[in-house]
Structures are given as structure tokens and as C-alpha cells.
Amino acid sequence: MVLIGLGFGCKNGAATAALASDAAKRVYVAPGEKDEVYAFLSGGFSGQMSVYGIPSTRLFKIIPVFSVFPENGYGYDEETKNMLKTSHGYVPWDDSHHIEASMTDGKQDGRWLFLNANNTPRLARIDLRSFETKEIIEIPNSAGNHASPFATENTEYLMAATRFSVPIPQASIPIENFSKGDFKGTVSMVKVDPKSGRLSIELQILVPGFDYDLSHCGKGKSHDWCFFTSYNSEQAYKMIEVGASKNDKDYILAFNWVRAKQCLDQGKASNFGGEYYRNYLPENQPAISEKLSGVKMLQPKDCPGVMYYMPTPKSPHGTDVDPTGEYIVGGGKLATVIPVHSFSKLMEVKDKPEHRSGMIMDIPILKYESTLAGEVKKPCLGPLHTEFDGKGYAYTSCFVSSEVVKWELGTWEVEQHLPAYYSVGHLSIVGGSSKEPYGKYLIALNKITKDRYLPVGMELPQSAQLYDISGGKAELLSDFPTVGEPHYSQMIPAKLLMDKAAKIYPLEENKHPYAIKNEKDARVVREGNTVRVYMTQIRSHFKPDTIEVRSGDTVFFHVTNLEQDYDIPHGFAVGGAPEMPNLLIMPGQTRTFKWKAPKPGIYPFYCTDFCSALHQEMQQYIRVLP
Amino acid sequence: MLELLLKKISKMNRLLILGVGLLFVSVYFLPIWHISLDAPQYPEGLGMKIWIDKITGSSTYDLQNINLLNHYIGMHEIVSESVPELLFMPYVLGFLIFGAFVTFLHPKVYLVILGILNIVILGILGMYDFWRWEYNYGHNLNPEAPIIVPGMAYQPPLLGCKEMLNITACSFPSWGGIILFVSLGILALIVWNEKRRMDVSK
């Protein structure tokens, strides 16, 4: 094994991400041993989330969230297809960027993960017992749900802000009107029920028509606040690349959500339109899809003190709050410094007129210097995102110069430059956005891969890098290809999750309306042209095993897996079924395969998940009569 | 000898007899025997517990999974209802407890010896029955079973461990069984103690 330190010999402490000399040993997890950390990576344009083990970087699972998944039938079967319903219809794909972990007192609690859908504004909740998507809520009055889903300190709310400002409510008006202020953005407060995790839209706040990019909420002393970056304060609508890059400073919006809730309770928000869906998957039952309409909308002018703009250079992207809740770090993607705002200063100056430089839609604009704690000077090119190790250091990704810079909070001095391969977007440290980072590992989530792996055609593997940050200097440990673009990640210590992973659906708790719990109840019931097959699976057979239907019948196979053993799912697929892919049915679960009986003939059905010694025998026939 | 049999036992030993009787009561609530199956495909192991009146899996679904495993080789389904002995075993235990109380009220050495004989005889019968039961399950296979290994039987060991295909089956007394053995020892000690006291007093 060749483990050569890759020196990048730059001065100024730069570019010395030597590969740790014993890197192979430090990422090696022997057969039968388990990883130390779960890494959940969003899949970007794949619309999914994937689960990796760290430090081995082994891929464990892909959790389908916003995109259909033929591997297990998510989004296709009668149980899950309602999860992808929206006010635009059935949208079987999305663009998923940010993963947030549920928190209690600002610390990861291992209950849920949340993921945004940027394209068709939605938010999803993934349960960390079953590692399955349990709820998807659509965000109305929004276009491009990018600054989402960022949680408050106790997961009271998830924030979701508009990336693409549009007329709200929607209207076909000239696009030039963007510059005249006819386009608006919204910030949504999505309430999370502390027991069940159920999501509801409690309030929206109408904000000026910029592009709201990212967010993070405060902790500790800044508990009441969330911070949103925005770009295109120029309100350019043509050649935005140039038009939106003119102003020397755009803004971080400081939003007091506790105050907003107060104003809501005082009746200061008004009824507003907006149609949206909320889709929820009860335990082992078909998803319930509700069409809701109307939200409460708050205007900043009716709720003084709810929002302030902090100027931030230049087209800020990331906004990250350090573990103490004091520092708000901006990532100005065109800036030459990393600006750090001080929460205490913000509190001190926010209502003093001499610290203001203007107002936009009744939102005070504070002076840049008034809230500034310090600047990291010339850190790199294109600083984007910052995570914290809990030991007083911050790590910022730099897209243009393809590196991660380590710097110290308070002194604002750069400590180390770590090359990344290539063009790093988000970073993730285990617990790095929480009040108590677990530190140790950092992954750089890259946008472009170039020559890291064997070429596989024009589209190269997506890629991430693992660093050990436990010692004085961060060290590169390994590269790993990922599923979809690894946009953002939450890493959670394994001990928080591994022992509570669900193993089976207990059959006695199966409340699916078409479940049967015993082979004796297996039957075929005809209701006019609809045929319902109540079917069971157990190693290694189906009941009923031969079935007759008539051509043109709509056949529902309600299949219950009777197994109660860990990791014995059975598959179900029918030969040539045009609209349904495979189903994977977990032990004790019931799922429904809908099939339009085709022209007369004999059609096989079979188990697709190699279940037992007689798996290959787990096959039978449907006869379609004329 | 007769002198020993008719000897009244000491107050201390009498209380011990009462203790043994009460200890027997706990056997209603504890598994007597435990069979464990270890195999690479079951990293968490599978197990079966035999109680005075029922058979259960070591964890909720173990028995169902053992039966699923067994159906390939044609073993009969193991369910409590298929073992009629379980119907009268609680009464046998009741009889032993009753004996302990009789001995407590009528504390003579011969009753203690009778108790020992009862436990030994019932123990031997029980072990024989258990062996017979294991033999039947292991040998009396369904001729239509999907997997038939010529000459192969699947009888678990009576006591100890045994390899069957890639499964290691271990069979040991569980808490209830251990209590029965310990009780037997206590009774033997009582008799030995009474004999010694008799010899010393001579």
C-alpha cells in the first residue's frame, strides 16, 4: 500500500492536506465491526438521501424521499404514491439540498431528519427508527424552497424561505416588475409536533423580493433568532450572473421567530391564500394525503422588531451559527473576507437609529460595522459554508479555490488550508451545526470530481472527502463516490441511533385495512371489475398461489409479509406489469400492487428479494381469462 | 437405618425444607430448560425456553423463526399444544411442593428421602420424556420436506452442545432446572447432616 503525503508546498501555511500516513488503518472497519458515525447525505438532484458509515465511507442505504424508487416501489404503490402529491399534481422527483437533524436543547436527539425539496417547495420528515420518509408537506406561496429546513434549538419550528422570489400570490405580470418590487419572498415557520413529529405550517412572513439562500437558527442566547442569507438585493431579472453581483453587500436577514409567534398570537397576521398538500404515512398503513388551503401571513410592518437586515459581503451563501450562539458566520461567495457578525452586538444596536442605514419594507437595515465581530481576511476564494468543531475552530469551504480553511473563532486567524478535490460546496462535521459538536470527522461535499476515480463516461462519479479533525492539523483520510450530488449532510454518532433501529413491523400491530395475518385468511374477492387479492408471503411461498382474473379487471394485490424475522423482506413483482415496479415488503408489512389485467394469458408473479433456500421456488401464476 | 429414617429432623433443617418448598414455587415462573441455536445467519442467535407449562422463544419471534427454519428439513412445528406433558407438569410440581409442606409439618428423615426419590424419579422420567420428544422431532421428518439429507437427523442434545449442519445447538438447564438440582442437593445435605448428628450423639 502506498501512502504518500501529498504536499502542496504553498507558503502562508497553505495547502498541506497531507494524506494521513496511516489513513488506511484509520478508515478500515474490519468485517463484523461497525462504523462510529452515520453520515446522511442528501442526493441533490437525485431527490434522495443516502446513508454512509464513517470512517469506512461504506454506502448502507438509499432512503427515497422526493423521488420514486423502483428498487422498493416507493412512490408507486397504493401506500406511498400519495406521498408525492402536490398542488401541482403528482411530482415524482425533486432537488433535495439540506438535511437537518432534530435537536433537543440544541443537541442532536436522533429522532428525525428533515430534508427540503427546492423545485416544488416541500419539506420531508424521515424517521430514524425505520429510516423511512414518514411525512411530506408542501410549502405554499413559495418558489424554490432553498433556505430550508433549518430547525430551531428544540425543533419547535423548521424554517423555509423562498429562493426564487415571485409574485405572491402568483400572477402573470411582466418580469420587469421584479425590479419594481412586485416580486416577493416568504419565510415559513413549519411547526413540528414534539411527540409525533407531525408538520404544519403555522405562519408565513412576507419579505422583500430577494433570493433567500440559506439559513441557520440560533442557539443558547440567540435561541429566538434565525438567520437567512439573501442575494440579488439588486433585484436583477436579466443576466442575473452579472446583475446580481453588483452590490458590494447583500444581506443576512435576522429573524426573531419568537416575536413572530407573538405577533401571530396577537392577531397581527392575516388570512392569506395558498393551496398545499400534507402527506403522512401512518405506521404500516396507506399514506394519507390532505389538501389544505390558506395560511396566516404576517407583514413585517405589522410586527416591529421581527426582522433586521445585516449587510454582508458579497452575495452571501452560507450563514452558520457557532455552538455558543454568539457568532453568525457569513459565506460571501464573491467576498474576499469571511465576515462574522456578533449576536450580542446585534442585540445592542438593533433598535438604535444611529446604527441604521435605511429600511426595506419596514425592515431596518443595520450598518455593517455595527454588528461585525470580525473578519477572516483573505481566507480563500469563494467561501461558502462553515461548520464548527466545538473546540474553538471553524472550517469554511471555498468553492472557487477548492479547499477547506480552518480558522480560529475570536482571533479570526487562518490555521490551515486543506485542498479538496474539487470545488467543495457544503461541509459537514459530526454534530457540527449543533450546540455540541462531536468533532472528529469532517466531510467535504464536492461538486466536481475530475480525475479522482476511473473515468466512467462524461458524467463522473459525485464525490466527497473524509478528513480527521481530531488532532491539531486536519488530515485527509479518504475519498468516496456518492449517490447524486452530495449536497449537505448531517452526521450523527452511531450510538445515538443503532440500538433503536426498527427490525420488523409487529404483525399484531398491523392496522392496514387490507392486511391479513394468517394464511388461512388468504383469498380473492371480486367487487365488479375490481379484484382484491388478500395475499400472504412467508418463506418460501405465496397464498393464494394460483389466481384467475378476467382481462380488463383492476387487480389489487394486498400483500402481507408474515415473517417476523429481522431482514427477511419479500419482494413482489408481476411479469410485464407496465406501471408498477418491484415492491419490497418488510416483515409484518402490507403493501399493494395495482395491476390492470392485460390480454388473456398466463402471467407469472414472484419474489424478487432473495429470501431463502427456496427463493427461486417462490413464484406462481395468474391466469387472465378472456 | 430404621432409626435414621424415623429420626425427627432438626429445627434448622425443617426450615430448610420449607425453604425448598417455597423455592419450588418459583419454578412456576422460571424456564426449566433452554435450547439455543447459533448459526452465522442468525448473528443474534435463536433460542427456545421450556417452562413448566409452555414452550416459548427466547425472544418474541424466536419460536416462529425456529419453526420457519425447521420447515425446510421437515421437522414438525413446535408449539406448546403439541406437548401434552406440559398439561400435567404443573401438578407434578404441585405434588413436590405439597410433599415439602407435609415434611415441614411431619419432620421425619424418611419423608426427606422420599422427597429425594420423588425428585430423582421424576427427574429421570422427565429427562427420558424430553429425550424421547427430541428424538421424535429430530427423526420423525416430513417425507415431503424440501431438503432431505440422507441419514441426517436433527435431534438436539439432551445436555451440552452439538453441531447440526451449520447450527450449533446447546441444551442446558435454565433457572427453574437449576433450582430443582439445587433443591435435590439441599435435601441430600439434610439427610447427610441428620445422619452425622445421629452418629455424633451416639
UniProtKB/TrEMBL annotation, chain B:
Q: Which domain of life is it from?
A: Bacteria
For this protein, the parts annotated as crossing the membrane are 12-33, 86-105, 110-131, 172-192
Give the UniProt keywords, A-Z.
Membrane, Transmembrane, Transmembrane helix
Full protein name? Copper chaperone NosL
| Species of provenance | Leptospira johnsonii
